[in-house]
């Protein structure tokens, strides 16, 4: 995207710099140098109505405005912030939105007049940008600032893309080592009475154990609890950790401290989703990596691949996420595509080929030991299911989540809710029906689609179109990597062998091609519905195809398993079913069924739309040449995001209600929405939604970007760009 014309002298700060530069020490020095005559005091008295009025300074002797130059304001931070909030944040939620009913105008003194002349800042967007900038300036310890008008009226598409690239990724990046373990250690899902930072180290990483024991001893104020995991991680062991939930160690590298010359360990960074999700997630990481690559941050995506390889080596799988309570389950697998996209970017760097080799070997191990082994593998169909092990009630959900399920059992056993959970988790009471319920519940969480009426009470039995598409992609990618990069001979070292594999045996692309052909045949047989023109899940226990219409049907195009004829039908039949105002729905309204008090909305059903669904569908449609559909769907999603960003104080959330025009970020299903809870200024957005924005922009042209920047709805844009037929 082009940025506005900038004509700056060398002692000026780029108006679109990151807050640490724009409000940091250098900016302070330059603005002081430039405006010597300024005499603002920070000790201002409130006016009679209790508000702070920016004080009118003395008129400067020199001329005021040079109209050709971009406008800048001279702003007293604390007083303007107080005035702005009191006047414009009328509902007192620390944000200025279209729902506030203030006058929507505030005057700022121009810098060129030393604050004497004023100029009006008008409308929700500019005022909320002002609020955000003042919060940032305050956080950087500034009492007064020179503020570029272009930072307030910046094209919103540019602004959001800039914030994602320059600020949000940084806000979501974590490193686990002595430098920042207190940040990564925080877990808003730790509901225990003493939520202290705790780290579990796998048995096979004694160097990390020694490292963290020393960190804990050197910095007792952290209260870091360092625990060694048992060699064999069983469901019982995982259950017993529920009272002491903790972070799981990820990859570290040995480095030499440049000042002391001593060798130490350094954590490999990763991006977290945001909100309550402050750990490395499985499929979120893949989506985030698409955004990181789009933003030239491939080193972070690479580091996440390396962390996944560590997880496969030490925990046996890519985890749902890196907390102790997630140890038994995985999430939708994307490792091969992620590693190959990273490789494409870094292939000229030293060590790139080894990076890819390790990732492909890890993926092969994961493929066999997790997805193609029982209980996930179904030998009858040859297809796979989300079906993780585990015991008892998942501890990470809100306390209220399972009340309606568990209370009748607590009553039956004359126990309190807590007593019952304790007794049930430890096998003191036996309730096979509940075991079945939680088997499926764990599977739902492993599927990433927690929760949905599509999967509730049945997920562990389903060969889903989602998972089998992803495994087909593994098979095709592994075949391609072996053939293209490893001379069609990949040696499998002992540490990557599974079951009865012979150490150091050679694998070739044809072995993997055969696997993909077998899967395609099974998917055609069990998952494709010729009459309906879509792929569906298959119930391996009832031995019948399901009828829930899910937007994951497009994953068959993402992975390439759909024939061109199937793809054409999917597009014709599927798109009209799933397309809504803001992009693609997770599922159809009809499939979800009626909702009400007794049957509340589930967040992965209609009317919600999620970034990963959009991103995979765009890529899928693009792969088969449906470029007009891609353009339209991308536009709708980006439009919805941009409009919410403009109208609601810079908000970027975990998911959207894609049927809701005015406030699509409002989702009250299940645990609500993540990314809403900020005061004044959003610092992180939400991982995969950030990614969807910058990834989506790659499918747009300059014309679309301009139209998005002026908040032109799709229909209006489409009408304006309709090709005029030749006469
Ligand atoms: O705490 C409840 C559940 O939260 C997670 O699921 C949701 O957030 C994840 C992170 O963004 C995302 O990967 C998943 O698709 C979302 O539904 C977690 O993954 C669940 O296991 C957990 O029970
Ligand atoms: Ca408000």
From TrEMBL:
The keyword Membrane does not apply. Residues 82-110 form the Neutral trehalase Ca2+ binding domain. InterPro entries: 6-hairpin_glycosidase_sf, 6hp_glycosidase-like_sf, Glyco_hydro_37, Glyco_hydro_37_CS, Trehalase_Ca-bd. Pathway: Carbohydrate degradation. PROSITE patterns: TREHALASE_1, TREHALASE_2. Keywords: Glycosidase, Hydrolase. Signal peptide: none annotated. GO terms for cellular component: cytoplasm. GO terms for molecular function: alpha,alpha-trehalase activity; calcium ion binding. Its EC number is 3.2.1.28. This is Trehalase. The lineage of its organism: Eukaryota, Fungi, Dikarya, Ascomycota, Pezizomycotina.
């Amino acid at each position: 995207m082009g940025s506005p014309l900038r004509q700056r002298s060398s002692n000026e700060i780029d108006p679109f710099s990151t807050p640490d530069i724009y409000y940091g020490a250098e900016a302070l020095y330059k603005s002081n140098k430039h405006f010597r005559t300024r005499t603002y005091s920070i000790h201002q008295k409130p006016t009679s109505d209790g508000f702070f009025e920016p004080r009118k300074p003395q008129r400067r002797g020199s001329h005021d405005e040079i109209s050709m130059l971009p406008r800048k304001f001279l702003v007293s931070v604390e007083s303007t912030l107080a005035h702005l909030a009191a006047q414009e944040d009328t509902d007192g939620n620390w944000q200025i939105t279209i729902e506030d009913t203030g006058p929507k105008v505030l005057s700022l003194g121009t810098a060129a007049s030393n604050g004497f002349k004023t100029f009006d800042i008008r409308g929700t967007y500019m005022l909320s940008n002002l609020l955000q900038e003042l919060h940032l300036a305050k956080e950087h310890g500034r009492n007064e600032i020179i503020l570029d008008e272009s930072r307030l009226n910046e094209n919103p598409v540019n602004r959001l893309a800039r914030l994602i690239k320059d600020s949000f990724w940084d806000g979501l990046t974590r490193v686990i080592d002595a430098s920042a373990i207190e940040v990564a250690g925080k877990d808003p899902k730790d509901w225990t009475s003493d939520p202290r930072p705790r780290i579990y180290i796998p048995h096979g990483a004694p160097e990390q154990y020694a490292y963290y024991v020393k960190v804990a001893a050197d910095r007792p104020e952290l209260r870091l609890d360092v625990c060694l995991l048992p060699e064999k991680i069983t469901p019982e062991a995982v259950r017993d950790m529920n009272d002491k939930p903790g972070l799981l160690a990820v990859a570290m590298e040995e480095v030499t401290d440049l000042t002391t010359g001593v060798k130490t360990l350094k954590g490999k960074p990763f991006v977290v989703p945001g909100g309550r999700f402050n750990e490395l997630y499985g499929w979120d990481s893949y989506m985030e990596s698409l955004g990181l690559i789009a933003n030239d941050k491939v080193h972070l995506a690479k580091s996440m691949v390396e962390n996944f390889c560590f997880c496969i080596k030490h925990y046996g799988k890519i985890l749902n996420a890196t907390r102790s309570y997630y140890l038994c389950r995985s999430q939708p697998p994307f490792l091969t595509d992620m590693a190959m996209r990273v490789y494409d970017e870094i292939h000229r760097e030293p060590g790139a080929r080894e990076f890819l080799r390790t990732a492909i070997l890890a993926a092969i191990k994961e493929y066999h030991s997790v997805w193609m082994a029982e209980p996930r593998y179904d030998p009858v169909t040859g297809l796979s299911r989300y079906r993780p092990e585990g015991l008892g009630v998942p501890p990470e959900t809100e306390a209220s989540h399972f009340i309606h399920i568990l209370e009748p059992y607590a009553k039956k056993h004359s126990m309190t809710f807590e007593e019952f959970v304790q007794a049930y988790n430890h096998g003191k009471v036996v309730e096979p029906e509940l075991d079945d319920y939680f088997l499926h519940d764990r599977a739902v969480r492993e599927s990433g689609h927690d929760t949905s009426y599509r999967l509730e009470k049945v997920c562990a039995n389903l060969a889903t179109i989602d998972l089998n598409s992803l495994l087909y992609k593994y098979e095709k990618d592994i075949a391609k990597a072996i053939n293209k990069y490893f001379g069609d001979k990949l040696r499998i070292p002992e540490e990557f062998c599974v079951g009865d594999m012979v150490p150091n045996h050679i694998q070739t692309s044809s072995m993997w091609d055969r696997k993909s052909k077998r899967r395609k045949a099974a998917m055609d047989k069990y998952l494709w519905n010729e009459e309906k023109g879509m792929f569906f899940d298959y119930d391996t226990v009832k031995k019948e195809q399901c009828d829930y219409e899910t937007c994951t049907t497009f994953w068959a195009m993402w992975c390439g398993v759909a024939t061109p004829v199937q793809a054409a039908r999917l597009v014709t039949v599927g798109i009209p079913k799933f397309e809504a105002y803001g992009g693609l729905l997770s599922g159809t309204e009809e499939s979800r069924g009626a909702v009400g008090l007794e049957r509340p909305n589930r967040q992965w059903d209609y009317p919600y739309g999620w970034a990963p669904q959009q991103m995979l569908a765009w890529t899928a449609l693009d792969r088969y040449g449906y470029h007009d559909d891609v353009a339209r769907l991308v536009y709708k999603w980006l439009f919805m995001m941009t409009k919410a960003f403009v109208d609601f104080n810079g908000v970027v959330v975990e998911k959207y209600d894609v049927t809701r025009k005015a406030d699509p970020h409002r989702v009250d299903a299940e645990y609500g929405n993540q990314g809403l809870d900020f005061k004044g200024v959003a610092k992180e957005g939400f991982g995969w939604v950030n990614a969807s924005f910058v990834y989506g922009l790659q499918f747009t042209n300059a014309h679309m970007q301009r139209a998005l920047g002026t908040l032109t709805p799709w229909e209006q844009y489409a009408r304006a760009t309709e090709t005029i037929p030749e006469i």
